[in-house]
User: Fold these one by one.
Assistant:
Number 1:
Amino acid sequence: MIEAVDVPGKILENSEIASGIFRIEIEAPEIAVSALPGQFVTLRISQHSLPFLRRPMSIALANPDNGVIRIYYKVVGIGTLLLSELSPQASLDIAGPFGRPFSFSADYTKVALLGRGMGIAPLIFKALTEAMAGKEVWAFFSARSMSNIFGEQELRKFGVNFYFGSDDASKMSSDYLLQYFFTIAKSEKFDYAATCGSKRMIRLIQDLNKTQGTFAEALVEQKMACGIGFCKGCAITILNNFERKTVLVCRDGPVFPANEVIVDEL
Amino acid sequence: MSFEPDHSIEIFGVKWKTPLTTASGTFELGDMARKLFDLNDFGAITLKSLTLNPREGNPPPRIAEVDCGLLNSIGLANPGINYFLEQILPKIKSFGIPLILSIAGDSIEEYVSLAQKLSKIEGLMALEVNMSCPNASKRMLEFGSNPKDSYFLVKEICRVSHYPIIAKLTPNCLSIQDIALAVEEAGANAVSLINTLIGMDVDLLLKKPITGLPTAGLSGPAIRTIALRMVWEVYKVVKIPIIGMGGIIRAEDAIKFFLVGASAVALGTVNFIDFSASKKIINGLDSYLRENSFASLKEIIGLAHKSLEFMRCGGD
């Protein structure tokens, strides 16, 4: 069943939360009502041809009660630059939700989420959903700079065990965070782990899957033109039952079982 | 005074309720299409090219955004004709949309074999011969880039198919007029043009081509003026209808294609960007016809040529 719709969303907020990193909130009740963690929306930033393509963005929060979709984005090119210049109250063509979400099951109770850089965004949605379902949630987020880590306040508010590290930190470096995660994983025995934003983190949870049987999923990125399975542009190769298989990130993913992801080919 | 202009057309003896189709490879008929698009806006849906065997497609990255356009090196990824006929066609036929199926091959035998298989299927509108994919084999591109090969290819397909044959032409050739004349002579019932232009882009950071295959097909508004020029040229020499395409994203673009001689137009890359483009184009076309007092779309097809004849005749 496809729930996706294409609607004119209303921008409620579009603010820079750290250097070059923005949080945008868009009112789009038709999308917020069905969006799940791991799914994405696509934004048509301009009705003219600049940027030419829509921009796929991970959903960082969808609130069915007030109909608001939250997205975090980093200004990296002309598309995100023009997006950052849009003012509240402006209308923005938003379509979605698209893609295969993270799995959700009452069977697992201890959840580990590993995010790096902008890959933190979809994990915020996942963390809150799991926490609200009464799960024990641990978040391990890292970024190049401490100021680029977001979501701490709201995650802590919902009782998420929040750990972070950054490349520029003197105490908790990104490297140390992962070592720390591994130590915790040994004692805590997570039964579910998800990651986004780092090849190294995918390898870590692949390892966890092998050694502890943790159900592990990775959200992967690939350049997309359409986001709806038409253009066949976002293909990657995965390992499915030990056989190489070409799949589309937009439709078959963006979330895949971590052990199917061929990290070296991403 | 307000009236409803007639935007229906007739191509190879078949009535299209609107002059819009989809460019092969840019649309997939299924649940997503039904959810996001209004399929009633289209007179026909042209599907992605089918090959005899499944094709995984080219290595990633397969797409890159460029100024006013898109580079792609998909490489005809498709599940193969047998899977399509068994698993996909029965479902999409139930949608009741007129279908144009596109075929592609590495040899005349492969095309003929595909056309034969599809001739046994009932209820299709037409077959489109993709003799111009820049991302598959060199051989395929060669079919479409010289008149002799184009002629023999289309002739053999026409021999085995009872369906109308549309030859999809490539802009990557010396003279598109010669190719169009050759396929008309061979029995094609219509031509569609243009396929993508071969281009490339370079990743400055990695210092290598931006797509997995170094060269890729360019589509989008960047190629529109070239496509218009080619439809203009082909209209001058052939009698069969032209399905025009290349960078159409709004009504004005489509109208220009009709004025230079297209009987129908295909929406391609815009399907990735604007899911309601078809609606805007139909509405814009109707408004244009109304505002210029044309009762039907047929009256404006090729009209830009007539203005030129008038000038040559020394009219005032």
Number 2:
Amino acid sequence: METVLAHLDYVAVAVVFCTGLYILLARQNLLKKLIGLNIMETAVFAFIVTTGMVDDGDPPLLAGDLGPAFASPLPHALVLTGIVVAVSMTSLALALIVRIHCEHGTIELDELLDRDGS
Amino acid sequence: MRRLAAALAVGLVALALLAGLLSLPEPGAPDSPAQRHVSAAYVEGGAEAGGAANLVTAVLLNYRGLDTFGEVLVIFSALLAVLVVLAGAPESEPDQAATRLAPSPVVAFIVRLTAPFMAAFAAFVMISGAELPGGGFQGGVVLGAMAILLAVAMGRERVTDALQGGARFWVRAAAPLTFVLVATIGFATTGWWFGLPGPGPWRDALVLALDIGIGIGGAAVLAGIFLALSRR
């Protein structure tokens, strides 16, 4: 129990990640699947930023007063890159969903698969 | 049935995740792996070696400039891919477009009133990215959001007509182009690609140029993606 409380930030990340994964698996609507994927990405970004945190640490801005500890700048930069890639992926997925709707008139995965089989 | 299977799978993943996460060093510990190795070296080198007082900007534009170049290429390719995917799709029916809800005059007025301030804030975030929280990507997102708001409130034609044909392409490619330019200048002055010259006004100018190029290019790409998607 003590370990869980000490890692409460990470437990929260796991909860958000699993919420996204459940939406991704259980929903048939492609748009909702995409939203689930985005929630999972958010959890991963939160996890990486949390690893860079230091208790009582300052943001890594050297222009201000120099504190004793700095948050690690590297995870922040990596997550910024990750967010941009996630936006690119989301936009491409949205375009594909729009195109699927144009061609087939539905974005429900089970209906699309049924039509494919018949 | 599907939901039960999904819940079971998620439960298994959750157990594995928790087992892994709970064995990590506690968040906030000053001696965790994320604080040592290269991160410690980046903080040690500080603004002198990194090229920007904001160390995140220093990591992004100097230490890991090649990564960031790949990043701007990814978002530019995403715009190209969105345009290609939607190119063959039929236009939405005119009567369907007409039934779209027009925003109220109040909303349109407020958006027009606040747009210049949004643009000014975006410019501030881009320019001050070397010292304060912010940078090219953040400023670009603010600027892109302004363009999207204008497109929603005043009609997309007003935004698409602002840039015609060739100019629109070059603005959308601004971020990769700025990076190639700065990388070439770095090659000429320091001998390696993406190298920045030593501390001084030249380096500050190059970092500022990168931030502004990324900001304008990113905003144009975001607005372009929205406009392409909203045409259907």
